[in-house]
Amino acid sequence: MRRLICKRICDYKSFDDEESVDGNRPSSAASAFKVPAPKTPGNPVSSARKPGSAGGPKVGGPSKEGGAGAVDEDDFIKAFTDVPSVQIYSSRELEETLNKIREILSDDKHDWDQRANALKKIRSLLVAGAAQYDCFFQHLRLLDGALKLSAKDLRSQVVREACITVAHLSTVLGNKFDHGAEAIVPTLFNLVPNSAKVMATSGCAAIRFIIRHTHVPRLIPLITSNCTSKSVPVRRRSFESLDLLLQEWQTHSLERHAAVLVETIKKGIHDADAEARVEARKTYMGLRNHFPGEAETLYNSLEPSY
């Protein structure tokens, strides 16, 4: 009889142990909101990311976590300059070339390879020093619609080239790419839930490049609005993008939208999706670095279960 009772007690404890590690049934202690540990300066991104986490393609990174067909930031950097060499002899020639590019990209009846080559031509011009010509920026504004159309293309190769091109523009032009970035970011977020890995990961990588190189406050509402998207992958990647933004940008670029950032992070901590909640919690440290008072108020407003 004693042996039978001992066996039942052991079985009961074993069952409790299984429950405590079940990802779908976290203990109350594990689910509590904790202030994230500060990220080490040497590797601010990798220390905050868990490799192999489920759901949606990651926003770039050193490994292709999106699976077969995925692209990452290293692929983009190689493609920036892996284009035909061109020379610019005059402003007039540059204007004519940009007009031709816009004509091709604005008409989806052109063969897809023509459209892909036109996008590469923009990068060729950047490599050749097009940004040194004043007329380039005037024509770049006229290309906003054509670039958006390319990022919406049904051909994954065209979408990939469009994302690489806007990422290159952001990298070279920085804040001078403000209007282009503002125009293209909503379209890039629409690519995130795409079932084609090359499209989804291209959109994610382009968003990262823009966040790193084009620090324009008007981009903040475009990101925070996607944090409440009906799409779970979009919400996850939006909070991940917000985390990167808080790491990369200066406080003066964020001050106008401090209240929106706080409210967005608060909603994220209560998100219905577990991974979105994790990504939202990671943004807290960045918020505290910029706005310690607002971050403290947010922390104190949370229920103990968070």
Describe this structure in words.
This protein has 306 residues and is mainly alpha-helical. The protein folds into two domains: 69-214, Leucine-rich Repeat Variant; 217-305, Leucine-rich Repeat Variant (Alpha Horseshoe). The protein is 63% helix and 0% strand. It contains 15 helices and no strands. Residues 1-63 have low confidence and may be disordered.
List the keywords.
mainly alpha, Leucine-rich Repeat Variant, 2 domains, 15 helices, 0% strand, elongated, disordered N terminus, CLASP_N_dom, ARM-type_fold, TOG
Globular, elongated, flat, extended or rod-shaped: what is the shape? elongated
Q: What is the strand content?
A: under 5%
Record field, number of beta strands: 0
What radius of gyration results from the CA coordinates?
Answer: 23 Å
The fold-level CATH name of the largest domain is Leucine-rich Repeat Variant
Named at the architecture level, the CATH assignment of the largest domain is Alpha Horseshoe
**Oligomeric composition of the shown chains:** single chain
What is the highest CATH level, the class of the largest domain? Answer: Mainly Alpha
Mean of all residue-level pLDDT scores: 83
Domain TOG: 90-304
Protein name: TOG domain-containing protein
GO cellular component, one term: microtubule cytoskeleton
GO molecular function, one term: microtubule binding
